[in-house]
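quick one, 428 residues, struct below
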Amino acid sequence: MVRRLIALGLVALATSGCGARCAEIATRKRALVERTAVAAGPHAQVRVPLARANAFLAALVRDQPLRAELSVPHLYPYQPPIALTAVTRSVEIRPSPADRVRFAIRIAIEDAQHEPVTTLAIETEVKPELVRTAAATELVAGFGPANLLRVKPELTDGSAHALGEVIGRWMPVVVRATVPRAVLDAAAKLLAEYLTEGAYFVLQRTVLPKLGELTRLRLQLPALPIASIALPPSSDALLVDLVTDLPVRRGLAGAAAASDDVAVRIAGSTAAELANWSIEHGYLPQRYSRNLAPEPDGDYRPRLDYLAGERRPVKVHIFQERGGCSYFQVGLGLRVAIVEDRLVVEALDRVVEAVNAWRPLELALWFKQLIVGSVDSSRRAAAQTRLTLGGRAFTTRVVRAAMADDELAVALEFAPEPGLAASHAIVR
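---
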């Protein structure tokens, strides 16, 4: 009888202790899972160096130069027919105001002997569109009849005197020798007016729409749950700031380092919350067995957190949700690199910071299964950044990755896919 009472007492004590532990663990879990506050952005950023983008644009324009024929109006007495050709020479992205992309276009005007007459310099600013589909979110920027804004055609090569010399070389030598300078100057003025008005309107209907299609930029953004974007001004890059709807504790701090590579920066807290989001949506295993095998009915469920500024900012929380109550918290730092196209993740200063359980788990396994998988999910999200110019796509390869200053920085190498054959189209 006494032994039975003692046994019942021990069971009651264990049960009451387990109940208190379960309540404490449930409170801790709610504090993590039910957070809704979202830190100010950006939570991630894409950086495309202007030099790199402009090199791609230059190759497109070189491979597919667009031309348009121009008919010169009457400039002087006894003028023979004069044919000019407009040829696209370059399209560049220039430093732009916030939330705009500025294109600078140069169109050379040549005569029938392919001698230069002048160059039209045209600048336009467009507001990019954010295009969402089931497969991806893209930033699209291009100029055309519908979105050409604040266009300023101007003569940049040569004065009226130089245009007079151009007109003079179109005249027979005997005529040129007798034409007064005043006649050449008047003709040069008419030609300048035509080039900045009449010729430009011809180009607006012919070359510019085709050129806008040819050089239309489509930037597929990282595979994150994006709530909004912004384009901050920059002197040397196209920057795209991303804000997610994840409960990120702290966004990116400071400016991106200068680099010739296309780069994606992801705040450490964003990377952790992306892992949680991937687990919730089934892109990463949701439940695990005691031996760390992913199982649909596993007893254990992980949760990640990132506390910027701490010695061990990465926090791995492991909750036992079935078959009992237990909780483990591991803190660690990370070193990340790409070695021969493989992601290498190293744990730094890994410490079990909290335990509320009857029995320990082999927590080292959680690093291999969960942390490496979570970092890799961020790397793959960054690698979804893709570029398309006109109809030409560029392949993406991750060449570097590093974890520093509470952010994951990923450098991407873009290379054009085998593409379009050269074209020398005359557009009308």
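The longest strand covers residues 342-356.
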